[in-house]
Amino acid sequence: MADAVAVPQFQLPVSPADLLRDDGRGDYVVQEVLPIRELPPALAAFRAAFRARGALAVLQHFDSVYSVLHHFRTVGTAVKEDALELMVNVVSHHSNELPGILSDAGLSHADRATHLNALKMNCYLLTSLVDAFEMETLKNSLSEADPGGKNKKNHAKTSGSFWEEEREPVLQLLTQVLQLDLRQLWGGLSVEEEFVSLMMGSCYRILENPSIGLQKYRATREAVTHLLAGALIHCRQMFSATLKITQMLQHFEHVAPVFAQAVSLWAKEYGLKSLVGELLREIGQKCPQDLAREASGVKGYSTFVTELAGEIPVLVLSNMSVLLHHLDGESYMMRNAILAAMAEALMQVLNGDQLEEAARGTRDEFLSMLQAHVCDVHSFVRSRVLQLFTRIVQCKALPLTHFQSVVSLAVGRLNDKSVIVVKNAIQLLAAFLSNNPFSCKLSCADLDKPLKKEVQKLQEMRDRVRSTAAPVITPEEEWEAMLPEVRAATQQLFQPLQEREEEMLEVEETVESAVEQITGLLRKLNYKSAACLTQKALCRFQGKEPFSSLMEENEEATILDVLKRLYTGSCPGENSEDPPNDNSSHKTKEVVQEEQSQTELLKQETLVQYLQDAYNFSVKITEALNLISKLMYENSVSVVQEAIEFFVTVSQFGVPQALLGVRRMLPLIWSKEPGIKEAVLNAYRQLYLSPSEDSERAKAQSLVHSLSLIMVDASLGTIQCLEEIISEFVQKDEIKPAVIQLLWEQFTEKSQCSSLEQRAAVMLLGMMARGKPEIIGSNLDILITVGLSEKACEDYCLAQEVCNVISKLGGDPKPAKKNSAPFRLPQNHMLFGCLSETVSKGFAQPSTHWIPFMDAAVMLIYQLAEGPEEICAHILQVCSQQALEKLQEADEQNSDPGNSPSRDSGGAASLPTFMLMHLVSLVGQVALQQVAHLEVSVSAEIRRRRILKEEKTKKHSDSSKKKRRSQATGNETTMEEELGLVTATADDTEAEFIHSICETELLDGKHLFSAFVPLVLKICNNPGLYSDSALSAAAALTLGKLCMISSEFCDSHLRLLFTMMEKSPLPGVRSNLIIAAGDLAIHFPNLVEPWTSHLYARLQDPCPSVRQTAGLVMTHLILKDMVKVKGQVSEMAALLIDPDEAVVGVAQNFFGELSNKGNAIYNLLPDIISHLSNPDCAIEEESFHTIMRHLFSYITKDKQTESLVEKLCQRFRTARTERQYRDLSHCLTLLPVSERGLHKLQDNFDCFADKLQDPAVYSCFQTVLARFRRAGVKPEAKALAEELEQKLSASHNRGLDSTETCQEGSQIPVSVPAKQKTIRSSCRQPLSPVNRDDEDFVTPQPCTLRNQKRAQKRRPRKKAVITFSSDEENSSEDELLAELREEETPTKTTPITRSSARRLR
C-alpha cells in the first residue's frame, strides 16, 4: 500500500492535453506517451497487473491507456477494442469491491485517497474511450456516402459494430458506479462536480449522434436516461443539466423527442418534477425575436414542448404561464408548440364534466386561444390548430358550448388560400360529423319539425308557470306602492262634511267580519271606504285586535297603521289560529308543485337547446357541403381526396344534400391522377357495395335501390361516369351474382317495381355488360321479348334503354383474334324485326319519346346488322308510305280544285306536324349512320379482307420461294418493296372509294335520300310556313346531317345553314345547327373555315343554352386545332363573366384544358387583353378584372411573367383611352413580379410614365411594388424598388401639376385614331342573333391569292342579301324561299392543317 500512497493526486482535466503539463501543484502528470507499436504489450502488462492488484493497477498503468486515447485515430481497431474491454473489466471490478471497502470502519485516509485516485482514473479513461468511439462512429456515419475510401468504410463497420454492442453495457456500468455511496471517498462531502460531469458528458456525447433516435437504439437511450437520472439525483446537477439540455435543444434538432421522453421518465419514476419547470422557464425566457432568427433552435424547443406535453401534460399545464408570451412572437413553430401543449392539456387534463370552476375557466381560456389562432397570419399555424381541434373532437374533449363556434371557424377556413389549411378544415368537419353528440341523422328538414314542436311546448309551459307562479312582489312592497293613495283617501276623512261625501257603509258585527270587509275593500282598491270603515271600527272595537290603540301620534296615523297590518297580514284576528295553519299547508303544496313545474321547465329548456344546437350544426354542415363540393375540382390532389372522403362521411349521416356531392364526384373517375380515381372508386365502394343488411338478397336490394336513386333525373354525363365505375367493379368481381339476378327480375317484372325502376334495372345491366358482355349476350332473347315487344310502343324510354344495352355487344374494342370478323347478326334476326316493327308503328303516333328511341334503334341496326342499309331503307319506305297514305286521306277530305297549283306545299302542310317531324328526323339519322357505316365499318371490313388476302398471298409466295431457292436475293428485295408500295397505296384507294360513294351515289337521283332532300330544304327555307319549333329544330339538324354526306352538297348549303344559325328566333334550331357546324368543321374543315367568325358570334347569343352549346363546340374545335384561336378567342374569355353558371363552367373548363397545351394561354393573353379593353367591346371594368384574374392564374413560369411584364408595358404606347391604361396597369398587379421583372419595369418606364397621372394607374404600380417588397428581397433589389418608386412618384406628381396641359395636348391626336378604330372595328362585329328583316347577312370572304384580292378591290362585290318571309301562311311560295345566289357563296378556301398545335408553342 506504500506504493499507492506515493502516487500524486489525480485531478480530472478540462482537456486531455492538461495531463501532459506539470503545473507545479504536485498533481498526477502523464510521464510518457507510448508509441503505437508499444501499445499492445503495455496493455498486456496492464491486464497482468490488474489480475494481480485489481483496480488499483491503473495507478501504475494509466499512461498505457492514455497513449491509446492519444493515438486513437491512427491506432488499430484491435488495440482500441482491447483497451475498452480492459477498462470495462477494471471499472466493473472496482465498482463491485467498493461497497465492501467503503463499509470498512478502519479504512485509513491514505487508502481512501488511493481508491479515490484509482476510481477517478478508471472512470476518466473509460468515459474518454466512450467519447472517442462515439466521435469515430459519428465521423464514419457521415463519410459513408463517400464512394471512395473502401478501407475506411470496412474499418468503420468493424469498429462501429463492436461499439454498438458495447455501448449499452458501458452505460449500465457507469450507472452502477454512480449509484454507490461515493461521498465517503470525498470525506463525507458531496461527490466532486467534475466527476459527475465526466459521466454526464459521455451521455451528452452519445445523444449528439443523429441516429440515436432510431428504434434499434432504444435500449441505449434508456441506459443514457437512467445514467443521467442517477447523476441528477445523487449529485445534484439540476442547474447544469438544465443549461446543457437547453443548449443541446438549440443545436441538435434530433434530441428533442429523446429529451422529452427522458424528462417525462425522470418526473414519473425519479420524482424530478422541478426539472420540468426549470426547462420550460428557460425556454420561456428566450427572446421571441431571437427565436425568429434561429430556425434550428426554435425547431428543437418547439418539438420538445410538444412531445413533453404529450407525455406529462399535468406538469406542462402547471408551467404553461411562462410560455404564453411566445404566442405573440414571430416564430410560427413556437406558436404551434404552445397551442399543441394546450390541446394536450385539454384532452388529457381539462376534460370531463366534473371540473372545478378554476379548471373550467382555464379550459375555456385555452379553447378561446386556439380559436383565435384558427385565423393566424401563418398558414402552418392555421392548419396546425385545425389538426389539434380534430384530435380534440375525436377525443370528445370539446364542450358542447364551443361546438357551433369551432364549426363556423372550420367552414370559414374552406375558403383559405392555403391548400393544407383547406385539407385540415375538411378533416375537422368530418371529425365533427363522426363524433357529433346530436344524432346519426342530420337532416335540417327532419330536425326542424321536432324543434318547432318542442319550442311551442316550451312556450306553453312558460306561460303556464307564469300564470300559476307566486307573486314576485311582497305584500309590504305592494303596501308601499299603495301608501300615497291610501294616505290621500284617509286625509279626506278629516275634511269638512260639505267638501266630502258621507260614507253610507256600516261596520260588521264581529271583528273578523270587519277585518274581511276592510281587507276586501283594499283588494278592490276602494281605499276611501276602507279608511272610513277602519275609523268606525276603531270606535266600535276599542281595545280589540287589530283595532287596539297603538299610541300613534294622531288618528290618521292610527288608521294607516291598522290598514297596513290588515293588508300585509301581520296581525290576524283573534280566532284565526287554525286558518293560518291550513294556509301554510296549502302554500307548501303550491311550493312543491311550483318546484316540479320548474324542474319540467328546465328539462324542456335543455331539450330545446339540444335540438337547437343540432339544427344549427346541421345548417353549418349543409353550408360546408356547398363549399366542399366546389373543392372537388381543385388542382391539389390531397384536397380532392379529402373532399371525396368527406362526402362519404356525410352520406352516412343522412344529410340530403350529400347526394349532390356524391353525384358531383362522378366525373372525377376520368381523372388522370390515379389517387383521385381510386378515391372515387373507394367512395362508391363504401357507399354502395358495403350495405349493413344481413342477407345477400337484402344487400342486393339495398345496392340496386341506392344506384337507382342516382340515376333519377341524371344527365347523360352522369350515367357515363357511373357506367365506368360499375364496369370497374364488375371486372374486379365486386358485384355479387345476387345483384344481377335481382336486376333481371325487376326488368322482367317478376318482382314488383315501377316503370322507373324497370328502366333503371336495364340501364344497370347495360353498365355491368360493359365489364362482362356475357351478362347481356346470354339473355339477348329476354331483352328483345320484354323490351322490344308489343309493349314497346307504350314505353319508348324502356325500349331506347334496351337498344343502348344491346349495343354493348358490338362495342368491344378488343376482338378475341387479330383481324377477326366483327360481331354481326343476320338480317332475319328477331331483333331487327322487332326494331323495324316498333319504329314503323310509332311513326304515325304522336310521342315525344319516339325520336330518341328511333335514333337508338337505327344506330343499333347499323352497329349489329348484316346489310343494315337494306333494313333501314325498308323502314324509310314503310314510314314514307304511311305519310303518303295520310296525305291522300287529307287530300280526299279537303279536295279543292283551286288549290291544285300549290298541291305540294298545301299537302305538306296538311300532314300532322309530328309525322313530318318524325319523317325528317328518321331521314337525318339514317343518313348520318349510313355515312358512319361506310367510313368506319365498311372501310375497316375492306381493310381487314385485304390484309387477310395479303397474308394468304404472302404465305403462298413464301412456300414458292422455298421451292425456287436459286432465285437472286435482289429480286426478293424488289418484290418486298413493291409489296410495300402496294400496301401504302391500298389505304388511299379504299378511302377514295368510300369518298366517291358518299360524293356521287348517296345523294344522286337513284338513292333513297334524294327523295327527301327537297322536303328538308323546303322546311328550312320557309320558317314562316313551317313555324313549329320542334319541326324546325329537327329539320335544321337533318340538314346538318345531310351535309355530312357530300362536300359538294355541304358547300352549296352552308349559307343556308349559317343563315338559320344567325337568324332563327328558335334557340333549339340555333343549338342544333351549332352542333352540326362543329361536326362539319371536323369533316370538311376547308369549307367551314371562312364561316368561323359566325361560329364565334354564337358565343354572344342571347339564350344561355345556345351560348353553352356554342362554348362546348368551340372548346372541342379549338382544342383539336380545327379553328383559329387568334383574335376571336377573347369571346371565349368573355364567357367567364356570363350570368349563367353553366356557361361560366364551360369557359373555365376550356381555359383549363387549353393551359395544358404548352404556352397557349401565354401566347393568347396579349391579344385577349387588347380585345377586351377595347371600348367597342363594352366589357365593364370590374368584369374585365374578373376575367384577367382567372386567365393570369395559369401564368406560372418566371420567363412568361417577365415577358408579359415587358409586353404589357409596351402596350401602353398603343393604348388610346384612360380605360385601357387602367386595364393594362391592373394586369400588371396580377403578375408575381420578380427582380428581373422589376428590371423590365425600369427599362420600359418611358412607356407608361405619362400615364401615371391617373390615380388608378399609379395605385396599381404601387401595389406591384408593395407585393414585391413583401416577398422578401435582397438589398440590391430593395434599392431598385425604391428607385423605381421615386420615379413613379415624381411622374405622378408632375402629371398632376400639368394635368390641364396634358389634356389639351392629348385631345388632338387621340380623337382621330379613336374614331378610325371605331369604324374599323364596326366592320368586324358579328351579326345580331335576333331575327330582324331589315338586316343583311354578309357571306364571309374566302381566303384567295393576292391577284384575286386585287381584282376584288378593282371590282367591289355586291353584298349578299337574304331575307326571311313573314310568318303569314298565305304568302306565296316565292316569298317563302330564302334568296340564295351562287356567286355570293365562298368557292375557294384556305386549307387548315389539322395538326397546328406547334403554332401555340
UniProtKB/TrEMBL annotation:
Amino acid composition bias (Basic and acidic residues), ranges on this chain: 949-960
Subcellular location: Chromosome; Cytoplasm; Nucleus
Top-level lineage group: Eukaryota
Ranges for domain Condensin complex subunit 1 C-terminal: 1069-1228
A single cellular component GO annotation: condensin complex
Bias type Acidic residues, positions: 1366-1377
Region described as Disordered: spans on this chain: 142-161, 570-596, 887-907, 949-980, 1291-1401
Keyword Ribosomal protein: no
Function: Regulatory subunit of the condensin complex, a complex required for conversion of interphase chromatin into mitotic-like condense chromosomes. The condensin complex probably introduces positive supercoils into relaxed DNA in the presence of type I topoisomerases and converts nicked DNA into positive knotted forms in the presence of type II topoisomerases.
Protein name: Condensin complex subunit 1
Source species: Pipra filicauda (Wire-tailed manakin)
Encoding gene per record: NCAPD2
